[in-house]
Amino acid sequence: MEARGRLGFPSDMTRTGGEARRRRLIDEAVRLFGKGGYDGTSLEAVATAAGVRKQTLLYYFPTKEALLDACVAEVSARAATTLAEALSKQESNSKKAETVVRAVFRLAEQWPDFPQFIREAARMSPDVIQRFAAGLEPLRQRALGFLEYGMRQGQIRKQDPALLLFTLYTAVVGSITEAGVLRAVVGEDRSRTALRRREREVLAFVRSALAPAATEVPARRTRAAR
To answer: pTM value?
Structure first.
């Protein structure tokens, strides 16, 4: 039973436990929104899953929309951190795109609630997607810069970098969200196999999409060819 303060809320709301409780509520909301959809998930269900009363949830998130906002911010921030850390360890520009793909798939494997939540978020209003994308904007700008540089150097096929980035994003996100559905339907082991298979397929697609045409490949220097 939670210790109650004079206002009826847990007495340690402002302490370290309060932040831990808030994060647990967000984690459970991400899981339940991804599994049952935003409209199909009640605040009561989230509170119960987190082991608190609905009144406690409302202390942190006065409305369902506020809880959704917190979930979007959390998922976006965690994705951004994962990608930034992966890219910081990859020094080769030619392998950065594959590094991003692998990082996204590892995140989906380690956090299966992530692709399911993204799938449901995509079905909501454009505003929800924009809020999610806002957290990834610095990475989007870096990706555009990387693509433009690679095209100038003849390392990447010349095309519209923004459209290419959108195509790559669609391929990766579409693959992990579909794998998330399979995970829920067929179970842990088989779904992980499906996720790995899709990762290989997406990597092959990315390599093909980025590979320069034969007429664009710069001639190798004689010394490098030896």
So the answer is: 0.76
